[in-house]
Amino acid sequence: MTINVTVGNNVKRENVLVDDSTTLRSLLEEAGVDYTRGAMQLDGATLMPGDIDKTFADFGITGRAYLLGVQKADNA
Amino acid sequence: MPRLTVAGNAIVITSTMKLSDLQMVKKYRPEALILKKDDEPVFAISTEGNAGINEFGATFKDESRDGEGFATITMELKYDGEDIKGYIADKIGGSLMNIGKLERTLPAVVEEITADKQAVIDQITIA
Q1: How large is the ipTM?
Q2: Which of B44, B51, B52 is nearest residue A17 as measured by Cβ atoms?
Q3: Which residues of chain B does A13 touch, with a Cβ-Cβ cutoff of 8 Å?
Q4: Interface residue A2 vs chain B (CB under 8 A)
Q5: Which residues in chain A are contacts of B59 at CB distance < 8 A?
Q6: Min CA distance, B52 vs chain A (Å)?
Q7: What is the band of A59 on the pLDDT scale with cuts at 50, 70, 90?
Q8: What is the predicted pLDDT for the residue at A75?
Q9: How far apart are CA B13 and CA B123, in angstroms?
Q10: Does pLDDT of B108 surpass 60?
Q11: Subunit contact A2:B34, Cβ cutoff 8 A
Q12: How far is it, in rounded angstroms, from Cα A11 to Cα A34?
């Protein structure tokens, strides 16, 4: 099934159409989002270790989703 | 435009494209399966993931049994009213039109990929 995902971070977001068999990691890497900094959220819920290698279908996503990185800037 | 057949509670959507051709385009030219409006992707055809159709795309995983191999999607009809055609048109008519728009462009893409593959094969020498 094709799903519409808004992927990005605090600074940049884009809408992409992907297969629900796509893993979160592969989409993030394709979109150039650094998922090693800050917390990653899928539809507002923080992802746990191991979640990033699951597919959107594994999370029950069938239509639209938001996959966003909430990055915190380092203080000077 | 894809054809629809309703039998009992099943709807079968049959594309004008063969499943093998869609799989080839998905592999070599996946961007050709995405319909864009103002540079934004609005609809996509795929052959990967769960089969189905929604407002964002159509995923074909099966093919017709008539020997032609056209790509198909089978879904359940959840409607007990009288106006089945109107219901289907209302639910997935927009998606079917988008599939039709992509189907018009894909035969040329298939030809290009086939020619490119043949050019590669022609360069292979088995010593």
Answers
A1: 0.80
A2: B44
A3: none
A4: yes
A5: 1-2, 19
A6: 5
A7: very high
A8: 59
A9: 40
A10: yes
A11: no
A12: 12
Q: Do residues B99 and B58 make contact, with C-beta atoms less than 8 angstroms apart? A: yes
Judge whether B52 is closer than 8 Å to chain A, CB to CB. Answer: yes
pLDDT at A71: 72
Q: Which two tokens stand for residue A52?
A: 């990033």
Computed over every residue of chain A, the mean pLDDT equals 90
B50 to chain A: which residues are within 8 Å by CB? 1, 20-21, 57
What would the mean pLDDT of B76-100 be, rounded to a whole number?
93
pLDDT tier at B16, thresholds 50, 70, 90: very high
Biggest CA-to-CA distance, chain A: 45
Nearest CB partner across the interface for B52, out of A1, A4, A17: A1
Instruction: Give Cβ neighbours of residue B43 (< 8 Å, ≥ 6 apart).
Output: A2, A17, B34, B35, B55, B56, B57, B58, B95, B98, B99, B102
Q: Looking at the whole model, is its pTM more than 0.90?
A: no
Query: Given a cut of 80, is residue B62 above it in pLDDT?
Result: yes
Task: Say if the Cβ atoms of B49 and A1 lie within 8 Å.
Answer: yes
Tokens of B83: 């106006």
CA-nearest residue to B95 within chain A is A2
